[in-house]
Structure formats: structure tokens, C-alpha cells
Amino acid sequence: MERAFVELRNAICQPGEIAEIDREDIEAFAANSVVALAVGGHGSRLRAMTDALGVNKNAVRLPGGGTMLDLTIQMYYAAGFRDFVALVAHQAESVIELLGDGSDHGVRVTYSHDPGGPVGRGGAIRNALENGTVPRTSNLIVQNPDDVVLNYPGSFPHDLVAAHITGVARGMVATAVMAEGLRATYTGMCVRDGIVEEVMAYPALPVPAHVGVTVFAPAVYPRFDDLFDITKRSDFESVLFPVLVRERRLYSFFIPARCWIQVNDPKAWDTLIAALTTQSAPHPR
User: Fold this and answer.
1) Which of 83, 87, 222, 236 has the largest count of CB atoms under 10 Å?
2) What is the pLDDT of residue 285?
């Protein structure tokens, strides 16, 4: 089974080159960028906790008093990013109360309210382009704060920007962050002629998974105008990505699977708390 996984990885997972950039390069990129915090969803699998507190799941306090929003902002702040927009809908007031204008974090935070309730990340970005909270001349990094990047070896934003610059030089208009080698949540089996020949607990799958962070160049914004309707719920992963893939205009950036915690259920929440308790992590300002 391991050999089959190696062959599959070689067939479908070949990370590209990444340009070398210095601090001045990332500062210049950051000065013309907005980081969008995608916090409009209901977080249905954590609603037992969030509904009891009356807050958006990204505003729930972690040990030490911070939140997933604080962790995300601090990570980008350390790399020189200062402009943020929160794409809000469900429990928007708790996000606004937490972040305010961003001055407590040393950044600027504006808000784009989904019209009539959550419209998905695709609709939310189109809405932000229309209301001006995302300038059409700016680069855009979209991050789900509940896709926590933790204990990354180096600066995650720095390496992400380097990958995106590499892709743009090759004609790309977006860069999706990937992780591969994620552990399956089940026992895998190899079956031949109906007979189970091998058993593997929680196999590491070599299929790259989107981490929930994407960088967009301004050249892609007309696609949001064409493909998304702010009266309908839709995500860019399912609508825009296939278009860019057909045109070969979507680049990738890989991070170690161990650095990604997708906090979308109580078990993942406990995993995050354990990681913050036992390991080093970015701390809120």
C-alpha cells in the first residue's frame, strides 16, 4: 500500500519552485494587500458551544484569552500586513466587538457585511469588491481563521507571498495553500480479488488538500463579477477554482500537514487547545 501511495503522490503532487524574496519584497507586497478574514459562516458543528456563548466561533476565547482571530492577525502583522477586512454575517457583532477598528492589534480592520445572511466566500468577496472594503488594485489574501497555521517553520506569510510572486510571474492569478499527507480518520485496507491483504490504521493520504488560505492577484477580480451573485450562496473553491484550473492559472503553495489544524468540530477544537497549551504559538498583542 505504501508503494501505491508513493506512486500516487508522484503522479498528482509535484510542488513547484518558489522564488527567493527578501524583507523589502514582502513589505512592498503587504503595503498593497488586504487580508480578508472569512468569518461569516455558522460553524454548525461547533454551534453547541458558540450558541451558548452567543458569539461567532472565531471569537471564542482560547486559553490565555486570545482567539483564532487574534492568532491570524498577529501572524500577518509580524510579516508587515496592516490592512484587514472581516467578511461577517453570522454573529457579526461578536467579531466587531472583539476587533473594533484593529488599533488594539496595531492594524486597520474594516467590515463587509454579507447582504441578507451568509453568501459564501465567493459572494462575500464579490460584495467586498463592490462596497470597496477590498480595493480592486490590491492583492487579497483570504484566510479562514479557523484554519489555524501553527508552529510553521519560519514565516508562513513570507513563504506564501514568495510562492504567489512565483506563480504570478508564470501567468497565475491565484495561489491556493495546500497540505498533503493528511491522516485519514479511518482504518484503510488493501483489497485484491475480494480478499483483504493489508490493513493500515489512519493512512497518510498523498492527495493535496486545500488549507483554507488563498492569495488573489487583482487580475482575477473580474471573474468574481462574472461568476458570483451576492444574492446566492457560493464558495470560490467550487466555482472559481475549476475555471482557473482549466486555464492553468491557479498556483499552489505547500505547508507541512502537521502545521494545519482545521477547527471545525469539538475534537479539532480540543486539538487546538492542546497544541496551544503544549507547544509554542503566536500570541495576541
Assistant:
1) 87
2) 34
Number of domains in the chain: 1
Residue whose cell numbers read 502583522: 77
CATH number at residue 27: 3.90.550.10
**pLDDT tens for residues 114-153?**
988 788 999 999 999 999 999 999 999 999 999 999 999 9
Nearest to 126 by CA among 37, 39, 225, 217: 225
Q: C-alpha cell of 101?
A: 477598528
For residue 253, give the C-alpha cell: 503553495
Residue 39 CB contacts under 8 Å (≥ 6 apart), including other chains: 56, 58, 59, 69, 86, 87, 88, 95, 145
10 within some domain: no
* C-alpha cell at position 173: 492569478
Burial of residue 251 (CB within 10 Å: 0-12, 13-18, 19+) is buried
CA distance 143 to 40: 12
Rounded Cα gap, residues 132 and 134, in angstroms: 5
Distance between CA atoms of residues 285 and 276, nearest Å: 16
